[in-house]
Queue: 2 jobs
Job 1
Amino acid sequence: MSLAKAFAPGKVILLGEHAVVYGYPALAGPLEQGITVTIEPSKTGGITFQGQEGLSLLEHVLRKCAQSFRVSNVDASITGDLPASVGLGSSAAISVALVRAFAQVARINMRPQGLLDRALELEQEFHGSASGVDHHVAFERKLIRYVKGKRGQPLCLSRQIEMVVWVVEPRGSTRERVNEVKRRYELDSERSKKIFQSIGELVNEGVDALEKGKLKEFGATMNDNHSLLQELGLSTPRLDDACERLRQMGAFGAKLTGAGGGGAVIALFDDADPMVSNLGALGEKAFVARWEASE
Ligand code: MEV
């Protein structure tokens, strides 16, 4: 019998990645896919771990979490249906699910901010200088406008929003991409600041358009955001090509999502299911992300 089980979803950044690290707003939402952490009494003593990839780092994060909750003698398994290392927030989902599960085992009724702070500590082990957007979405499980250091503001959607998420190619580490952007910033801070500021403006325009259900306007902000990410050197030929194909398929807009340098793209459609079927028939890995209208 398990002592605790907790789920946290992956995420997509609809607008604003990287600029969010520098204090500009971002727009991000949860996926259906995510990570489940299950904790059972240990059969062998100590803390043991069952999971697939990145074993040593995951094990380190797991031990850190167990220590911070003063829990020992447990077996933990980390499972899920979220593609890892493609910009869909798997490390944040692991961090949030671990913290929720260990809080249950330790029988601590923590306030949301306490859980968020502990999840961010774990997330920093993966990413170094994470803005916090990923684990806030994993925690809130809502589409939010997020500014670093603050709680996310849920959007008030006038209609359901559907996107295609297309996993295009493998990707390097988020930490490296964030450091690369930092190096560029240090070389020419005026240029980088201008780009971040433009991204921040797109996020605010995008939030307004999405809340009003203006898909065409929102799609335009996605396309412009992709161009600005290209200027930051974060896209790749395959990501650009995927965005172009999605636009030709009738997307209102398309962009890379997450840290870039590979990974996934997202595209806004009225009805995303047929597009996912089309991509699936071509052997591509794609799925739908959907956010319901607010009540
Ligand atoms: C990674 O999902 C998003 C980045 O903006 C980094 C961060 O905000 O922590 C690239």
Job 2
Amino acid sequence: MSPEVSILQDALSIELIRRQLSAKTVARQIYLFGEVPSTNDALRHLAKAGAREGTTVLAESQTAGRGRLGKSWFSPFGVNLYASVLFRPAIGPKDAPVFSFIAGLAVADAVRSVGVPAAIKWPNDILVNRKKVAGVLAELATSGDRLDYLILGVGVNLNVESRALHEALGDAGRAAASLRELAGRDIDRNAFAASFLTFLDEWFHVYRDRHAEALLEAWRDRDILTGRRVEVREDGKVFQGRALGVDAEGHLLVEERKGQARQVVAGQVRLLD
Ligand code: BTN
């Protein structure tokens, strides 16, 4: 088979995703683009124009893919998953961190369903053998103290070559991997997209029906940090301590000195041991 044919067969397809999808809210409407600056940005435009909850944007590549804390997200064409999903939950902005855990849980479950053991590093990094295979960028819009909408953007390294990852990310590439590398076989991107969106829908309904506590419990089951020594970078400051887990608001608690817990709201955390 020529490489062109195999690329075509592996192209993302709304029809192939729909055939394998089971969801009530997520992916009610799917937009698929060849190239966008960022699926989160494309979805933000749709959200402002009144798009319904569950609207999903997928792209084969991003020219300005964004990660947490102002980082960029390497987004080469035709090999990975770049997805953003719109939610309009009736919650306040302070509840958004826990809500965003639905994305981490859904990616972790989709990764596990291809036979690879996945853990979550706060807030929503997905690690396999301590290497990052996926990340979540949650962005919200507010009107006063109300949440107008929330976008959960997910990037998963599916079939990207490890050489490309390392060339693009430099040193940080050593802490990243693709599922293909870890599973030892090509990952079917349409099947993976359908699986992720199905799990996302399930976790969204768990949150809606049983509220944050059920979600937190599931998230804590997959948490890799609790009890481990970590280094935290937040607001230009760096400190070390022992991770104690997440609080009811979804913030990370780190014990810097015996008996003194610090709350981490939006920092970068690195495992030390
Ligand atoms: C992180 O771990 O820093 C978060 C990475 C999130 C990347 C995804 S790819 C789809 C969506 N669009 C973006 O620009 N970013 C997110």
